[in-house]
Fold this sequence. Notes:
Blueprint: H1 3-9, H2 20-37, H3 40-47, H4 54-62, H5 69-79
Amino acid sequence: xxxxxxxxxxxxxxxxxxxxxxxxxxxxxxxxxxxxxxxxxxxxxxxxxxxxxxxxxxxxxxxxxxxxxxxxxxxxxxxxxxxx
Length: 84
Protein backbone atom coordinates (compact mmCIF):
# COMPACT_ATOMS: atom_id res chain seq x y z
CA UNK A 1 0.00 0.00 0.00
CA UNK A 2 1.35 3.44 -0.85
CA UNK A 3 1.62 6.29 1.66
CA UNK A 4 -1.25 8.25 0.11
CA UNK A 5 -3.65 5.34 0.59
CA UNK A 6 -2.48 4.85 4.16
CA UNK A 7 -3.24 8.51 4.89
CA UNK A 8 -6.88 7.96 4.00
CA UNK A 9 -7.20 4.59 5.74
CA UNK A 10 -5.90 5.94 9.03
CA UNK A 11 -8.54 8.65 9.16
CA UNK A 12 -11.77 8.38 11.18
CA UNK A 13 -13.94 9.04 8.12
CA UNK A 14 -15.52 5.84 6.83
CA UNK A 15 -16.65 7.28 3.49
CA UNK A 16 -13.32 8.78 2.49
CA UNK A 17 -12.01 6.06 0.15
CA UNK A 18 -14.42 6.88 -2.65
CA UNK A 19 -14.40 10.59 -1.91
CA UNK A 20 -10.80 11.67 -1.63
CA UNK A 21 -11.52 14.97 -3.31
CA UNK A 22 -14.08 15.83 -0.63
CA UNK A 23 -11.68 14.77 2.12
CA UNK A 24 -8.95 16.97 0.65
CA UNK A 25 -11.43 19.88 0.37
CA UNK A 26 -12.18 19.61 4.10
CA UNK A 27 -8.58 18.89 5.09
CA UNK A 28 -7.44 22.05 3.29
CA UNK A 29 -9.56 24.10 5.72
CA UNK A 30 -7.69 22.49 8.61
CA UNK A 31 -4.31 22.89 6.91
CA UNK A 32 -4.94 26.55 6.12
CA UNK A 33 -6.12 27.21 9.66
CA UNK A 34 -3.09 25.46 11.17
CA UNK A 35 -0.83 27.57 8.93
CA UNK A 36 -2.55 30.83 9.84
CA UNK A 37 -2.31 30.12 13.56
CA UNK A 38 0.99 28.23 13.25
CA UNK A 39 -0.45 25.37 15.29
CA UNK A 40 -0.10 21.76 14.18
CA UNK A 41 -2.28 20.79 17.15
CA UNK A 42 -5.13 22.95 15.86
CA UNK A 43 -4.91 21.18 12.50
CA UNK A 44 -5.29 17.83 14.26
CA UNK A 45 -8.20 19.04 16.40
CA UNK A 46 -9.90 20.35 13.27
CA UNK A 47 -9.86 16.83 11.75
CA UNK A 48 -11.25 15.01 14.82
CA UNK A 49 -14.57 13.20 14.50
CA UNK A 50 -14.24 13.37 10.73
CA UNK A 51 -14.27 17.19 10.78
CA UNK A 52 -17.51 17.26 12.80
CA UNK A 53 -16.36 19.49 15.66
CA UNK A 54 -16.33 23.10 16.83
CA UNK A 55 -12.67 23.57 15.87
CA UNK A 56 -13.49 22.84 12.22
CA UNK A 57 -16.28 25.41 12.23
CA UNK A 58 -14.09 28.01 13.93
CA UNK A 59 -11.29 27.33 11.46
CA UNK A 60 -13.62 27.66 8.47
CA UNK A 61 -14.94 30.96 9.77
CA UNK A 62 -11.54 32.34 10.73
CA UNK A 63 -10.06 31.70 7.28
CA UNK A 64 -12.99 33.41 5.56
CA UNK A 65 -14.86 30.30 4.35
CA UNK A 66 -18.27 31.43 5.66
CA UNK A 67 -19.73 31.50 2.13
CA UNK A 68 -18.72 27.84 1.67
CA UNK A 69 -20.29 26.49 4.86
CA UNK A 70 -23.16 24.76 3.05
CA UNK A 71 -20.73 22.98 0.70
CA UNK A 72 -18.39 22.13 3.59
CA UNK A 73 -21.29 20.62 5.57
CA UNK A 74 -22.42 18.61 2.55
CA UNK A 75 -18.90 17.26 1.98
CA UNK A 76 -18.62 16.41 5.66
CA UNK A 77 -21.88 14.47 5.69
CA UNK A 78 -20.81 12.45 2.63
CA UNK A 79 -17.46 11.36 4.02
CA UNK A 80 -18.96 10.68 7.46
CA UNK A 81 -21.35 8.13 5.95
CA UNK A 82 -21.02 4.75 7.62
CA UNK A 83 -19.89 6.11 11.00
CA UNK A 84 -21.62 4.80 14.09
